[in-house]
Specification:
Blueprint: E1 5-12, H1 17-30, E2 34-41, E3 49-57, E4 70-75, H2 78-84, E5 88-97, H3 104-107, H4 117-124, E6 127-131, H5 133-140, H6 146-155, H7 162-172, H8 178-189
Parallel strand pairs: 1-4, 4-5, 5-6
Antiparallel strand pairs: 1-3, 2-3
Helix pairs in contact: 1-6, 1-7, 2-4, 5-6, 5-8, 6-8
């Protein structure tokens, strides 16, 4: 019997977190587990916070991850990683894209972006992986593939064969963007 696993995907509107969660949930369905997904869009189209909760196992009753229960957080932006860190369980892992996207209060000058986000996260969590996904996406030729770079990284932490990931990506990503997204996924796996 598979225990329920909890993955929190956090980012900013426009980063592709929703596509990432669709691929992840599709992969989990292919391995025959029950999966529940909850998406929260906070003014996502304006660069607001976007959070997807993915829970899977033999039988999952609720899509909501309680605070302190996420096995893994996949953060598309470092302030979002810091904001959602309380949801990570004690020995959980956090995978962070080293990208800064200023939220509106910072843009307007009414708040400051914390310069010590990584230091704060590392003080609270032993399992921190940082990747420059934007740089890797530029390397494969399309900055909009940050989400697939991060999924590639995430795939290294889940015991699911690579071919299933590729199959779901082929089923999910539009054909005209497929090759660059497959390249991005592989680049993320090679972190």
């Amino acid at each position: 019997m598979a225990d329920t696993k909890n993955i929190l995907i956090v980012g900013v509107g426009g980063q592709g977190t929703i596509l990432a969660s669709r691929v992840l949930s599709g992969v989990i369905q292919k391995i025959g587990l029950d999966v529940k997904v909850s998406e929260i869009h906070g003014m996502a189209q304006r660069g607001g916070s976007v959070v997807t909760q993915v829970r899977y196992g033999d039988q999952v009753a609720s899509p909501i991850i309680p605070q302190g229960e996420a096995d893994l957080i996949l953060a598309f932006e470092k302030l979002e990683a810091l904001r959602w860190l309380p949801f990570l369980k004690e020995n959980g892992s956090i995978l962070i894209n080293d990208q800064r996207i200023d939220p509106m209060p910072v843009v307007m000058g009414s708040a400051n972006y914390p310069d010590d986000a990584f230091d704060t996260i590392r003080k609270q969590c032993k399992n921190v992986i940082v990747i420059d996904a934007l740089h890797k996406a530029q390397g494969v030729g399309n900055v909009k593939t940050v989400n697939l770079i991060l999924l590639g990284l995430l795939s290294n932490y889940l015991n699911i064969e690579k071919e299933l990931w590729l199959e779901v990506i082929r089923e999910t990503v539009p054909a005209k963007f497929l090759e660059v997204n497959l390249a991005a996924f592989q680049a993320g796996r090679e972190n």
